[in-house]
Specification:
Elements lengths: L1 H13 L10 E3 L40 H7 L7 H6 L1 E5 L7 H6 L8 E3 L2 H40 L3 H14 L10 H13 L3 E3 L6 E3 L13 H15 L2 E2 L16 H20 L1 E2 L2 E2 H16 L7 H12 L2 E3 L6 H14 L13 E2 L11 H8 L2 E2 L8 H8 L19 H7 L3 H9 L8 H13 L3 H4 L3 H12 L14 H21 L7 E3 L1 E2 L13 E3 L3 H20 L5 H25 L6 H8 L1 H10 L12 E8 L4 E7 L3 E8 L5 E8 L2 E7 L6 H10 L15
Parallel strand pairs: 3-14, 10-13, 12-15
Antiparallel strand pairs: 1-9, 2-17, 4-5, 6-11, 7-8, 15-16, 16-19, 17-18
Amino acid sequence: MKKIVQISLLALLVSSCSADIPAEDLSFPKEEAMEESFVRFYTPVEYISTPAMDPLPLPLATDEVINLMEVLLLAGQSNPPDQLAENGFAVFPMPSPTDNPVRAFELLDNMNQPVFVSSGIPLHMLHIFFDQILQQVETEHLSPDLLVICRELYQSSLRRNNSLNASFFAVPLTFLDRDFVPHSSVAETVAQEVSLMRAHEGFSFSPVFGYKEDYSQYVPRGHYTASEELENYFMAMMYMGRITFLLNGGDPNGPDEEYLVSEEAAREMTEAALLVVSDLNSIRAGDYPLKHKWQRIYEITAFFAGFADDLSASQYQAAAEAVSGETFNSTTLYEESFYSEFRDHIAENFSGPSIYSGTGESVVMPDDSGTFDPEELQTLLSKTTGFRFFGQRYTPDSEMLGKFVFPNITPNPQGQQRFMPSGLDVAASFRCQAALQIIDEDGTMLFGRYGETLDSMQVMVDGYSEDDWHATLYMCWLHSLRLLSTPRGEGYANFMQTDAWGRCTLSTFLASWAMLRHDTILYAKQSYTAMAGCAPGPDVPIPSAGFVEPVPEVYAELRATLQMARVALEYYEISDNNLTNRFSNAESLLETLQSIAERELAGELLTERDSEFLKGFAEYLDGTIAWGATTTEGLETSLIADVHTDQNSSSVLEVASGNLDNCMVIYRRADGVVEAAIGPVLSYYQFTHPMNDRLTDEAWREMLNSDPPARPEWTGSYISE
């Protein structure tokens, strides 16, 4: 009965789209195709990689290490663990837990022992820049422009008595403008929608659109808990990023049917979407059409997080112009032939979504034999095709997570369905050898179609060009992780050639990936699983200042990524002297790390300048990421993001980085001396959690302190508890 009531309500709302509305000319001017890449802002940074480090055969003789016991004491250990001799390195939880990298290096200061700088530290620095700059841009630029757009489109919708569009824009206005009061004609519907968003309890029928929406997504998380303004921006943008004006409809309809809504409802939503697109072109905000502000918001967010997975204003504008011309009378919208031609043009010229994001709480039903068809994933995507005002963004890792679960993946020999993916699926798609080894050992490869899907995802990744990898900041970050996961062979430190180091690197890969998903949680489209119907003496050599993980290509890519961000922000006129100085400091630090890594890899000793840099690394790092501030907020490595939702278990996959660990590495210097170095490395966690309790960073830190979840089993090969 509830479904009937809600869809009847939708009919009442959208019926006003075509009734008693004066005819007007609509505007769909032909325009140049929108940019699909920001590679124009990217300039590669050259690097030198000539692996020629002196070998140190494993298992090693620990009595050769000149500072073994001193470094072990720094790690809180009294004896070397077995992994140290076997692998040439070991990871230990810190005696005094911290999630602040500056503090972690400060704890090692004045101990006169070599510090180890892991690649995870500059990767974390990238997160800090990405996250804090995005906060600044959203607060100072995007949120004010979004308010103007929503206010203008709401008022226009009221003037033409379009209750659906008026309700749609009234919802974000409720969050963006504290003085906003919805018109009496839509007030009750808007209040019901906002109430569901604030309760964020899970799937429920949308009072505005009539199909099911996952309201658990409306928990401000990531950096959006930093201020009330950011929380409100999150709520408004999440709504406009997830809600779809559906293109396709028919009978029968519902979560377990071919369509989510009736054809009449889909027609009305399409008409409403086209009115919005026309308004963007015809309403002026200052000297420019309103679409200028819309496009600026879209492009800036796309630069950070990627391009929309769903159809947007540009596609609907192009389709309308192709079917009926640049200007036509609004009565054309309500002709059956227009809707049919428009829908066909969209199908023939634009691809639908690649990621199922839970729209309608869709259900995949088995056939008469009880078997689920893997092709039903495409049916789900077709059901959810339509217009999103600021649609959430396509990212390859979201597509991967969505492809590695039911119904695309079929049961294993025990008949179990795979409803929840893993971060390992993403790393394996990047051909990370440690991830491939783990999924082969743990039985994941036994699921039907898993190997086939993995092959297709690897081919997709292999097919990306340099321009593809540098199309957005998101893709640049992924490319840095791809470079990090490259196997290290002869000429690298022996500990870097072990399977255990491969797993330690995998942990860094996934922890940094979790940070990436944390920073883009508002914009990156989350995948869903569909519901299934069912101290040395005078004769001992002196320890050096330290050791930088010798991966110069990673540091070069991070430098290029930051330079890309700086150039783009200047182009969009949202930079300032403070930001420019921050970028300059960060690029300088990365340049020094790259230079040291190149010399280490070539078998050269540290220079005096290198030594001074490593001895003062805590201070350099503080000046780069904390900018001399007295607060530590924003520097934490303990970050969490939900990246996939399983409708069957009403749970989400949470991926997180936790407190820093200490990593002790042993290597032979260019002068033949064998020494140990110690420094912080990132930690990784993943676990399932109820979807109606999606975790914020604050809740995650409380969990870490009181009852931390177990780490992935595969980390046991290198972590010494």
